[in-house]
Amino acid sequence: MVWLLDDVYDVQHRAYMMREKDKLEPLKIRYHGVSGPAMPYDERYTPYIKKAGLLPWILLVSRSTPNLNAPLVSALVDRWRPETHSFHLRTGEMTVTLEDVSLITGLAIDWRPLCMSTDSDGWREQMIALIGMTPTEAEDDVEEGEEKKKRERKAAGAAFTWIQNNFATCPPDATDDVIQTHARVYMWYIVSRTLFPDSTGKNAPWMWLKALTVFDSKWSWGSATLAYLY
């Protein structure tokens, strides 16, 4: 085993326990894949995805996805120091920069900050206005008050399976409005699974669809990705 820092420190880390003691599994990576057969890319989406500034990344992940090395990621987590927001490696300190994000993802880092209200009040009505439908409400009718509001805020969005079932294929004879709707949903699906994944791996949050209300908003998706990473 190659010691990254010093014997005394390394034996306290997860990577050492995984390698030498066989007591721990690699950390689970918060990453949920991309389109696959269920959400094929349609070339008719390209003009709208390009206008939104997401084309380089979506072309990359919709055609192939990297194999993620869970043990390597676990070892890097061992070297991360939240006090300095940097990796403490034997070669020195390193951190993820905006330039790294730009080079790896192809996303803009010099456009407008992705700042908007995350209030989910009336999100179902807004979703219907934006893409024409919304998931069936699953909340218990008996539940009332603050707890129901909290659940509603937490559930604001749609399951990936719901998106696949309703928007997987854009009709061959679709109008321009229908193509735009499918393009918007496709972008929502991809960014929710790759750039901004949550721990469930099941849902696409409403706020990322809301960010795609206007295609040419000139959002700095790269900056938002780095902020979300931290």
Automatic annotation (TrEMBL):
<dbReference type="Pfam" id="PF10536">
    <property type="entry name" value="PMD"/>
</dbReference>
<dbReference type="GO" id="GO:0010073">
    <property type="term" value="P:meristem maintenance"/>
</dbReference>
<dbReference type="InterPro" id="IPR019557">
    <property type="entry name" value="AminoTfrase-like_pln_mobile"/>
</dbReference>
<dbReference type="InterPro" id="IPR044824">
    <property type="entry name" value="MAIN-like"/>
</dbReference>
<feature type="domain" description="Aminotransferase-like plant mobile">
    <location>
        <begin position="64"/>
        <end position="230"/>
    </location>
</feature>
<protein>
    <recommendedName>
        <fullName>Aminotransferase-like plant mobile domain-containing protein</fullName>
    </recommendedName>
</protein>
